[in-house]
Design goal:
Elements lengths: L38 E6 L7 H11 L2 E6 L3 H10 L8 E6 L3 H6 L3 E2 L23 E13 H6 L20 E4 L5 H28 L3 E3 L2 H8 L4 H5 L6 E5 L2 H7 L10 E18 L5 H11 L2 H6 L1 H4 L2 E2 L8 H6 L11 H20 L1
Parallel strand pairs: 1-2, 1-3, 6-7, 6-8
Antiparallel strand pairs: 3-9, 4-9, 5-8, 5-9, 5-10
Helix pairs in contact: 5-13
Length: 362
């Protein structure tokens, strides 16, 4: 899933990037790059984050120094990795999700490796089981979020389903991201396709357009500028009380508020959710494949899995991994999210995005 870099309380939907990320160069202080025996380089989208002590523990145990190369959003990172696969920038790519997985696999981006602990990944998150080219790492739900105060003041019930969003009482209230350039925007499109079928989703989007949906280029703009319920949106005087974001956005609004409220100021329309799964893989032609394998083992280990919710605001995929109380209280996973087989996404994604663009943006 594309988890966009946040900074401070204004940026609060999926994660706050830690001080470990090193953009641009994959060389460490002694001049060794990813091919050196002491450094393993992780290529990621811009939302990679982990606690310093967790990374330090891995480095001490494995003997490898971790370097992180952030490379834009998920789509940009995958596309660049494909273009550079013969001479990759790093050893492991983290952040390709189920909406883009087929593109990475079809282009030979990864080499096989079955990470230690893969048997502890919950079955519903596993993929490519015959070849083990990717390892599931995180999961989360793309869902419409709503501004509780807006609906309370107007004594209006917030929407809870895709069908609700096209009702007259919600006209001109929803902002979403461009499905052609944004991971949550694409996830929302795929959710409607899963719900209404290969043909029905187009009729649904015609109704949504007629009901005043606003489309912007990125999650940052939608959530932190247009949405009236987020800390950033309030500061920017956003006027849209409905936004496509994540089920984990409400707990972030609580955790990063000062003082922390007892209830989340935003809620989730649970009938609009699409389940995303995010993977990592050992890059073909990786300069340090042994270091990359050790890093993949670490990413599905209990310590990292239990660390990631409060850093990247996503859920672990490892069986038995604990999630913070704030997640359980303010941002539980959807009980019945829309899902779609990666093979079907591969078959239809590009055409759906093309049709969506023609239908909604023109």
């Amino acid at each position: 899933m594309s988890i966009t870099k946040k900074a401070g309380v204004v940026a609060v939907a999926l994660g706050m990037v830690g001080g470990l990320a090193a953009c641009g160069s994959s060389s460490d202080g002694d001049g060794q790059g990813s091919g050196g025996s002491k450094t393993v380089t992780l290529v990621s989208h811009d939302s990679w984050a982990a606690s310093k002590d967790v990374i330090a523990a891995f480095e001490k145990k494995s003997g490898y120094k971790v370097r992180v190369l952030e490379d834009g959003d998920a789509g940009q990172a995958v596309n660049k990795a494909i273009l550079t696969k013969d001479n990759p920038q790093g050893d492991v790519l983290f952040g390709v999700d189920n909406t883009l997985l087929s593109r990475a696999l079809d282009n030979g981006l990864f080499q096989p490796y079955e990470a230690k602990g893969s048997d502890l990944v919950l079955p519903e998150y596993r993929a490519d089981q015959d070849k083990h080219r990717v390892t599931p790492v995180t999961t989360g739900d793309v869902c419409v979020n709503y501004d509780k105060a807006y609906f309370s003041k107007r004594e209006l019930t917030p929407p809870d389903s895709f069908d609700d969003l096209v009702k007259p009482e919600y006209k001109d209230l929803l902002v979403t991201e461009n499905a052609g350039s944004s991971s949550p925007g694409l996830g929302f499109l795929l959710g409607t396709a899963a719900h209404y079928g290969d043909r029905g989703w187009e009729d649904y989007w015609k109704k949504l357009k007629a009901n005043g949906v606003k489309v912007v280029g990125s999650w940052e703009q939608a959530y932190n500028e247009e949405f009236s319920g987020s800390a950033g949106g309030k500061e920017a005087k956003g006027d849209r009380p409905l936004v496509v974001s994540y089920a984990s956005s409400p707990p972030a609004e609580v955790i990063y508020a000062d003082p922390q409220p007892t209830t989340a100021p935003t809620g989730v329309a649970t009938g609009t959710c699409f389940r995303q799964v995010e993977y990592a893989g050992l890059l073909s032609n990786a300069g340090n494949p042994e270091g990359g394998k050790a890093l993949l083992d670490f990413l599905i280990g209990r310590e990292f899995q239990e660390d990631l919710p409060l850093n990247m605001f996503v859920y672990p995929v490892r069986e038995g991994a604990r999630t913070p109380e704030a997640f359980r209280k303010f941002g539980p996973q959807a009980e019945d999210p829309e899902t779609m087989d990666p093979a079907k996404i591969a078959d239809h994604r590009d055409q759906w995005v093309k049709s969506w663009t023609s239908l909604v943006l023109k």
